[in-house]
DNA sequence: GCCTCCTGTCATCGT
DNA sequence: ATACGATGACAGGAG
């Protein structure tokens, strides 16, 4: 039995033209503002799998300062999550459940939707079904929600009730059609979207946890953000029991699996007092509108959820004021600190998620999701990066600011160089600075981006969004699909063996995750904000974290080869990795030459692991698409209409190799579906023929029975006639009064109804001649 | 090792 | 001419 953890992160783009002129005005006041503070909100939806419709079982608003409680995620206060946890456990025990978390963040001019799908399927669910549930459906759902909200700037409608994802709905076709029907420009590339499919082998909690840790490590390498956590996760992936314990979502296992107490974090306790202050401050800053909205959602959830009647106590917990929840959180934190609380629940995950600086949500990756073990382990290295979540939000630091705050990045408005400039933030994201201050300019110990660059403050929102249109609207490959269980980033890095790689990714063994400097550099907001590394540095990583399966790499990076820098590096890296291999390999050809594991010096273990991953998640085309940085998913390539497909090919500058691969993928995908339909049709025909045969056989038997009955009736009639014949002859007398011998005479009926007694010889001749000579009337006695 | 079934892929043809 | 679907044939994996 396999259990799947699907983490999906989506961010909807800002719509140009709806940007208020005033800088800092929340375009999407999803989250109530007060004094410039905006609190993120969790919308917790628990969806039954399978089920007809989902329901929201609670909502919560993060009201704590992540920076105050420390990176260990000590602060916990998300009301409603407790109820959600119990629902999840119950439904899981009843056959699985899909936990949908939506984190809304309102940054200046940019709304961030963070969707978390925690899918705990029953054993009977097929893997593909789960993938479908977590993939296109969720994307379409997000777009639906966005469309239903009327776009940006319409508060209170961003979560229309009743718009929950229907897991039973056709995941792709219908929902996407619905989205298109709504008029939403469904361009997958304009959605920051990444999701992680993580497989957890049941029955092995340590393995599962370790896999999560490994996934965190790989994602940390991809996003370049949470190398601290990621490095620890690497250890977890390698068997570190602490990290291994961090990620279990099993309701039973989570109660059993001990978690490394956060008390081991040196400064966690020291943050307690500071945390209280920040919590109070944060509580005072809670916006009333947000509270009202939250209350409405709670009421709605209560009405919708009949199960809540059985969980009133849970709802009480959910409806507790924030400060109460925070109090509970603190007490729970104390338990953690004391090492008495050894459980890890999804709530912990959410808490830890909320503990991340808001900016990192821009480029959130699994590595950014601070798994407890990894986070607690990564305390030392990240202690100086305490982030005040609320402050980070209140700074209205958006993604663009984060990008521009990158070192070596200068914001230039020269239109001539805009094209290239728009690439630079991403190209320089992964700049390696060993100095934490250098890594995060403008970052102090209390605020993530408190001293925002004044240059940015002088810019208007239009200015910001101009580049947002260029950069943010494109998908950011946030995390890897290669975060399968047994995924070992170190081994993966060995697949590509870039001796001069200075990507800063924790994947490379030369960049050991335990390296504090690399870990620190990973906290660069720029990296977190984009989730990207530079082309030449990260391409090898993106070979494993491409667009396939829902991740769409930056097209301008991977596809726009006409610009000098990124395109050159992209090609260079590509050539380095794949040499002269092409994907046009016939099945008989040594196809493995196009695969990374086939590079000289690769171990059989890596190959087998690759094969396992291939078997589990990625098809050959998906791997090829990843390898060539195809900025579209296979599903999109195959599923989109021909017009959209052609326009897509023309819209993006793709190499001939990429275009050819895309067309091949589309052809194969179409043919695959056609073959499936053909076989299904053939099977139906065979079944129909078999049914026809059965029907015919049954009809034959019926006819046989009828024939037998007829024969039987005929025999009866013959017998009766024979008896009547003898009876008649027994009564006949000849002229002399003697009995007529029936052997010599026969009875013959005439047309007029009279009966003649005819000698048989004459009768036979008269039959031939038609002359009834010698006939005589029967004389009855 | 062989067989069967399933699936993906290619080639080909017709629309 | 091109795209696309249908289908036979083949190969490979899994049981």
UniProtKB/TrEMBL annotation:
UniProt domain BZIP: residue ranges: 661-724
Compositional bias of kind Basic and acidic residues: 277-301, 313-338
Record-linked Gene3D superfamilies: Transcription factor, Skn-1-like, DNA-binding domain
Residue stretches of biased makeup (Polar residues): 415-448
Keyword Disulfide bond included in the entry's annotation: no
MF (Gene Ontology): DNA-binding transcription factor activity, RNA polymerase II-specific; RNA polymerase II cis-regulatory region sequence-specific DNA binding
Region (Disordered): 218-340, 415-449, 494-520, 762-781
Signal peptide: 1-21
Compositional bias segments (type: Basic residues): 766-781
Keyword line: Activator, DNA-binding, Nucleus, Signal, Transcription, Transcription regulation
GO (cellular component) term, any one: RNA polymerase II transcription regulator complex
CDD domains noted in UniProt: bZIP_NFE2-like (cd14720)
Biased composition (Low complexity): 218-234, 502-515
Function: Activates erythroid-specific, globin gene expression.
Subunit note: Heterodimer with MAFG, MAFK and other small MAF proteins that binds to the MAF recognition elements (MARE).
PANTHER family, per the entry: NUCLEAR FACTOR ERYTHROID 2-RELATED FACTOR, NUCLEAR FACTOR ERYTHROID 2-RELATED FACTOR 3
Record family assignment: Belongs to the bZIP family. CNC subfamily.
Protein name: Nuclear factor erythroid 2-related factor 3
Lineage: Eukaryota, Metazoa, Chordata, Craniata, Vertebrata
């Amino acid at each position: 039995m396999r259990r799947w953890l699907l983490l999906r992160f989506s961010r909807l783009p800002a719509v140009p033209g709806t940007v208020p002129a005033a800088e800092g005005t929340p375009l999407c006041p999803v989250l109530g503002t007060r004094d410039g503070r905006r609190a993120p909100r969790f919308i917790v939806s628990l969806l039954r799998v399978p089920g007809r419709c989902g329901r929201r079982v609670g909502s919560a608003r993060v009201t704590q300062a992540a920076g105050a409680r420390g990176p260990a995620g000590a602060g916990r206060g998300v009301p409603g999550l407790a109820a959600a946890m119990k629902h999840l456990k119950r439904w899981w025990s009843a056959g699985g459940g899909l936990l949908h978390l939506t984190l809304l963040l309102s940054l200046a001019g940019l709304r961030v939707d963070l969707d978390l799908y925690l899918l705990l399927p029953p054993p009977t669910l097929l893997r593909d079904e789960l993938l479908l549930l977590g993939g296109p459906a969720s994307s379409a759902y997000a777009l639906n929600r966005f469309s239903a909200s009327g776009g940006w700037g319409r508060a209170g409608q961003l979560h229309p009730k009743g718009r929950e994802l229907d897991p039973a709905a056709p995941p792709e076709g219908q929902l996407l059609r619905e989205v298109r029907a709504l008029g939403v420009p469904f361009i997958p590339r304009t959605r920051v979207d990444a999701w992680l499919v993580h497989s957890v082998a049941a029955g092995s909690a340590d393995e599962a946890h370790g896999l999560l840790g490994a996934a965190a490590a790989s994602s940390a390498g991809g996003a370049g953000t949470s190398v601290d956590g990621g490095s620890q996760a690497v250890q977890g992936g390698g068997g570190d029991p602490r990290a291994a314990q961090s990620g279990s979502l099993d309701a039973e296992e989570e109660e059993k699996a001990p978690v490394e107490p956060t008390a081991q974090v040196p400064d966690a306790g020291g943050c307690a007092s500071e945390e209280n202050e920040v919590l109070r401050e944060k509580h005072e800053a809670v916006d009333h509108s947000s509270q009202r909205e939250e209350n409405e959602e709670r009421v709605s959830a209560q009405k919708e959820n009949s199960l809540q009647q059985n969980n009133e106590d849970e709802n009480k917990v959910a409806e507790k004021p924030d400060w109460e929840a925070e109090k509970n959180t603190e007490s729970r934190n104390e338990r953690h600190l004391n090492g008495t609380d050894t459980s890890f629940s999804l709530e912990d995950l959410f808490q830890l998620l909320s503990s991340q600086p808001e900016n990192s949500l821009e480029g959130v990756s699994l590595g950014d999701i601070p798994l407890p073990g990894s986070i607690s382990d990564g305390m030392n290295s990240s202690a100086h990066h305490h982030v005040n979540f609320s402050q980070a939000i209140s700074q209205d630091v958006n993604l663009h600011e984060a990008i521009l705050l990158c070192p070596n990045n200068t914001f230039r408005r020269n239109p001539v160089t805009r094209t290239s400039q728009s690439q630079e933030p991403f190209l320089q994201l992964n700049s390696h600075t060993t100095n934490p201050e250098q890594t995060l300019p403008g970052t102090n110990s209390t605020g993530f981006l408190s001293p925002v660059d004044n240059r940015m403050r002088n810019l208007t929102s239009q200015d910001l969004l101009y580049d947002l249109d260029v950069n943010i609207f494109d998908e950011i490959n946030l995390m890897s699909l290669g975060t399968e269980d047994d995924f070992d980033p170190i081994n993966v890095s060995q697949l590509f063996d870039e001796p001069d790689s200075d990507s800063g990714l924790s994947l490379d063994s030369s960049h050991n995750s335990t390296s504090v400097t690399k870990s620190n550099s990973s906290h660069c907001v720029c990296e977190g904000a984009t989730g990207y590394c530079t082309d030449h540095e990260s391409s090898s990583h993106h070979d494993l974290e491409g667009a396939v399966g829902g991740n769409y790499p930056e097209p301008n990076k991977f596809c726009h080869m006409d610009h000098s820098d990124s395109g050159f590096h992209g090609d260079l890296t590509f050539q380095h990795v794949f040499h002269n291999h092409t994907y046009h390999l016939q099945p008989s050809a040594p196809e493995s030459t196009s695969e990374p594991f086939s590079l000289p010096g690769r171990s059989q273990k890596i190959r087998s692991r690759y094969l396992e991953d291939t078997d589990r998640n990625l098809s050959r085309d998906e791997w090829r698409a990843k390898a060539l940085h195809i900025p579209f998913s296979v599903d999109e390539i195959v599923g989109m209409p021909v017009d959209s497909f052609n326009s897509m090919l023309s819209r993006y500058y793709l190499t001939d190799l990429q275009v050819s691969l895309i067309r091949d993928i589309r052809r194969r995908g179409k043919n695959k579906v056609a073959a499936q339909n053909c076989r299904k049709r053939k099977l139906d025909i065979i079944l129909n023929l078999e049914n026809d045969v059965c029907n015919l056989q049954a009809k034959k038997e019926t006819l046989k029975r009828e024939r037998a009955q007829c024969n039987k009736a005929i025999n009866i009639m013959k017998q009766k006639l024979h008896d009547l014949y003898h009876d008649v002859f027994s009564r006949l007398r000849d002229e002399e009064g003697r009995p007529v011998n029936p052997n010599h005479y026969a009875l013959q009926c005439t047309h007029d109804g009279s009966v003649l007694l005819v000698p048989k010889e004459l009768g036979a001749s008269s039959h031939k001649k038609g002359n009834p000579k010698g006939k005589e009337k029967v004389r009855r006695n």
